[in-house]
Amino acid sequence: MAEDMSIESYLAQGGVLTNPTNVPPRYRAELMKLMTTFVDSELAGAAGFADVINAGPGIKERIAAAKIVLEKTDNADRVLKIMGEFGVDGDRYASHHPWTARLGRDADIGASRTEHDMRLAVFNYPLEGWSDAVVMNLLMGRAVAVQMAEFSMVSYQPLAEAFRAVAPVEARHAELAAEGVTKLAESGDTAALQASVDYWWPRVAASFGAADSTKADSLKAMGLRKSTNAELKTRWEAETKSVLDGLGLKAA
Amino acid sequence: MARFHDLEVTDIHKTIRDAVVVTLKPVNGAAEEFDFTQGQYLTFRQDFDGDELRRSYSICAGKDEGILQVGIKRVDGGAFSTWANEDLNVGDTLQAMPPMGGFFTALDAGNEKNYLGFAGGSGITPVLSILKTTLATEPDSTFTLVYANKGVNTIMFREELEDLKNIYMGRFNVIHVLETDAQEIDLFTGLVTEEKCAQLFATGWIDITSVDTAFICGPEPMMLGIAAALRTGGLDDSQIKFELFASSQPGRAKKRAVSTDAASAANQATAVITLDGSTQTIETPKDISILDAAIGNKMDAPYACKAGVCSTCRCRVIEGEVDMVANHALEDYEVEKGYVLSCQSYPVTDNVVVDFDQ
Fold first, then answer.
1. What average pLDDT does this structure show over B256-268?
2. How much helix, strand and coil, in percent to the nearest 5, is found in chain A?
3. Which positions carry the signal peptide feature in this UniProt record (chain A) (predicted)?
């Protein structure tokens, strides 16, 4: 029973960690990065979408948009609480970034982050009106579904549990977006919807990270990843293409 | 950010030769903060010859018992656990952060569930809290405990577990697996490995198909073996709850070699330190780390390991230059942005400006 095993080999064999006291430093850095990326993306996504609520064509749409803003903020809070156990001051964290800040529509930043936060690059682009926001939400919602399925298996148990709770909520957001796009497609302006798909497709695709990431193996050994960036992206492309097909739209 | 609170030791007793059960009472109106959930732990801090140590121990009381109690087993060479076992007295004050951890599932009086717990040695503490709370809260649920120990005389809470068996007859069952002491049933001797679990399932001692949730707390190899057996038995990850307290603790920061001109005025620096929104300007020798300088000036700077591994003490250098002697935690991009580990960073320039809030 008292046999010694290093945390590294424990993790490599599929072990899970349960609290900050037994998290090794490199693991901590990658885990913090994963958590800040999620929190920053949710907060930035919610802040951007909040501005769109009033653009909703009807009361149902506005309720759906407001619900999404509320729930994404709530999802950020769940993970922020876990970061709190690592010494992060959650209140300070949530209020010291300008979450509504966006770059220009044509900014070319690839998959890079801005100076100030860890949000996924895609959340640095501004939404242009209701239908553009709904399309972005559909494409990104599908991407989040793929990411959540992956990260629900991370080796840090409290985070895996948070993601398992978040996954169905985010899945519902993608459904709401699909319903929204269906409604917009019925009312006619397919060209505008297609233009939004063309704009957002490569940007959402880039959020899966570089295909040649050198970190994949070490992340896998730490139990923080199971699939590679490329595998996740391929999964998203296949699933989202069929959703778009059903809506009479084409993947870019 | 979690803060430390004072707790008064109201009772202390041995459960085995080298483990104590400490009962604590929050003082200064902090009682609400210590309203725990079964299976959570407390992080304590204590000074040892000027060095502050932080250690986490699980709560062993049930939620319905109305007391706050932790079990502390003495670890060879462990400063905190030895001190708690030998020098701690009723009436003393301990400092701890509010309860943390997610080693529990939500309970409901209407549940009819079958729980399975695995504990290795002192890993019993959170599992005891869980099983006591569960049996009291869910009258129609059952709990089976597999408890691994070296021998009979190292079984923590042995009598209390026997009492619980009598109180909850038919709903609570304990299987003691002992490494060195022979038992009537061969299966109950040895280590709790994947094979041992598979045998317990196959021979009907445990009906794995009826288990709703399993809790495991013990050393790493034991957790891996049990988890593998549970997965083979049909449980998925959301049904398996882990709690791991690794025995290895990060090493202590060594005092930096002080240059011979340490006493000269040239060794002094002015540090401007921002923390929690307020800024202090302090004079500090260059052989004192930024973190120690801040703490020495009554600033409640965040830190945990003081060994450059945890990054809790991270701050950002706004002006001036510091020498970071060790960095096992920050990534290159963070260092590029001016982040340093304050416990490992010493002023180089006569003026440095750092910010813990960024």
1. 51
2. 65, 0, 35
3. none
CATH number at residue A81: 1.20.1260.10
* Residue in B147, B192, B244, B312 to test binding to A, most A beta-carbons within 10 Å: B244
Name B116's bridge partners. B144, B214
pLDDT of amino acid B329? 66
pLDDT of residue B208 exceeding 90, the answer is yes
Close Cβ partners of B313 (under 8 Å, ≥ 6 residues apart): B291, B301, B302, B303, B304, B306, B341, B342, B343
What's the number of domains chain A is made of? 1
Q: Is residue A59 part of a domain?
A: yes
Please check whether residue A224 lies inside any domain of the structure: yes
**CB-side exposure of B287: number of CA atoms within 13 Å?**
14
pLDDT tens for each residue of B280-300: 999 999 989 999 999 889 887
> Which amino acid type is present at position B253?
A
B106 to chain A, any CB pair closer than 8 A? The answer is no
Residue from B314, B327, B325, B326 nearest B354 by CA: B314
Nearest residue of A to residue B240, measured between CA atoms = A157
B224 to chain A, any CB pair closer than 8 A? The answer is yes
Q: Give the DSSP letter of residue B100.
A: B
B312 with A29: Cβ contact below 8 A: no
Q: What is the pLDDT of residues B314-329, one digit of tens each?
A: 899 999 999 998 877 6
**Interchain contact, A157 vs B238, CB within 8 Å:** no
Q: How far is A10 from chain B (nearest CA, A)?
A: 6
B347 by Cβ neighbours in 10 Å (0-12 / 13-18 / 19+) ranks as: buried
Residue A51 placed within a domain = yes
Instruction: Say whether pTM exceeds 0.80.
Output: no
In a domain, A8, yes or no: no
Least Cα separation, residue A108 to chain B (angstroms): 21
CB-closest option in A18, A90, A153 to B243: A18
In three-state secondary structure terms, B321 is coil
The answer to whether the Cβ–Cβ distance between B219 and A92 falls below 8 Å is no
Average pLDDT, chain B: 88
Q: Domain range for residue A94?
A: 16-246
Instruction: Domains for chain B: give ranges and CATH numbers.
Output: 5-96 (2.40.30.10), 114-243 (3.40.50.80), 260-355 (3.10.20.30)
Q: A178 vs A25, which has greater pLDDT? A: A178
pLDDT at B304 (0 to 100): 57
ipTM: 0.73
Give the C-alpha separation, A24 to A209, whole Å.
Answer: 24
